[in-house]
Amino acid sequence: MRDKIWFMVLVLGVIGAIAGVALAGVKTLTDPVIEKFTLEQKVKPSLEAFFGPIGIDNDYIADRVTLELGKDDIGRMQRLTVFKGKKGGAITAVALQTAAPGYGGDLTVLTAFDIEGGAILGVKTLDQKETVGLGARVGDDSEPFIQQWAGKTYAKGVALSSDGGEIDAISGATISSTAFTEAVNKAVTLLGARNAEIMGE
Amino acid sequence: MAKRTLVQEFTKGLWEQIPPFRLVLGLCPTLAVTKSLEGGWGMGVATTFVLVCSNVLISLLRPIIPPKIRVPVFILIIATFVVIVELVMKAYTPALSASLGVFIPLIVVNCIILGRAEAFASKNGVAASTADGLGIGIGFTLALAVLGSIRELVGTGALTIFSQADLGMRIIPLPEGQEFLFKFMVDPPGAFVMLGVMLMVMNIINERQAKAA
């Protein structure tokens, strides 16, 4: 029986199904812990650096909202996390968490916008699985690639210098640089498309 | 080969078949993550978990796994445990997980694990497979921790045990503003040289033992 084709299909199918259920369970347990860590250790310090100098005075971590963006092609709900920065009660800056497919999986980026000045305040990589030594450099805040974003105007979107824009890609990591730019552009587009919800109270 | 006892199955992984040196398997993580003591033991523990779990499960499923598709079944089981380790480490030891980076998911293709599944767990009982997995895993952890300690100590003059809890010590004081003692050791070529030195030392000891016997 063990060399019958239906039995092989059955064994592999059953083990695969059990593995899938087990992984879904572990993911459900670890997701909130990972999210909490990301908020406290990655988002908070970055937003302090981006929002602090322009005088934002609210608790932007607590004042965050999650918008639903509709389902992707495999039926998963896509969500957008927005951090609202207020000065004297009025929203003057926001930060959007967006993702784009990079070289080794989704590249998640936090982009902070100065609404009054129309400029990007800064960017930060929250999650990446890029190649160590090449694309993974997007995860290093001191990289010139990451630092060059601050002060760029975003009204017309942003583009890499190879596409006529003013962002210099990391050499040897075109795919990661493009994905990063795509994630920021997604944030720019959403900022326009969902403006009412993002800027609302 | 005579039938080994459980204790022998366990202890063989600690010296006789210690993975990076005697089996010369699993060299990719051995060279890549042993920049510090922490990286070494972290990788070792993650690998040991996957190795023990996959050994136990494969040994249990041994009677029903069709021989023709055994390798895909092994890979599926190993990959599942690797993803579990990856998620758990990301949640509870984020600093360690970030420093090991891509080498955690790469445990899937660590040939020690598939090697033990194919050569041992698919032919032996659960108890023996557990002992084998634990022994080989602990041997691998020890080897990586020793290699990591030597490289970090010579390279930076310090030892990090667990950076998340600020556990570590400075053994050799460095002048203000100096980060490295002997930077070559924490760079990739240092890993090759140190691995070579450790292999040499082990071979000398083995030769002496063989002569004495």
Topology:
The complex is a heterodimer of chains A (201) and B (213).
Chain A: H1 5-51, E1 64-71, E2 77-87, E3 90-101, E4 106-114, E5 119-127, H2 144-147, H3 174-193, H4 195-199
Antiparallel strand pairs in A: 1-2, 2-3, 3-4, 4-5
Chain B: H1 6-11, H2 19-23, H3 27-32, H4 37-61, H5 70-92, H6 94-100, H7 111-121, H8 126-156, E1 158-162, E2 167-170, H9 188-212
Antiparallel strand pairs in B: 1-2
Instruction: Give helix % range of chain A.
Output: 25-40%
H and E order of chain A:
HEEEEEHHH
Instruction: Tally the beta strands of chain A.
Output: 5
Strand order of the largest sheet of chain A: 1-2-3-4-5
Q: State the low-pLDDT regions of chain A, or none.
A: none
Regarding quaternary structure, what we see is: heterodimer
Largest interface (CB within 8 Å) is between: A-B, 24 and 24 residues
Shape of chain A: globular
Tally of individual helices of chain B = 9
Please report the distance between the alpha carbons of the first and last residues of chain B. Answer: 20 Å
- Helix vs. strand class of chain A: alpha+beta
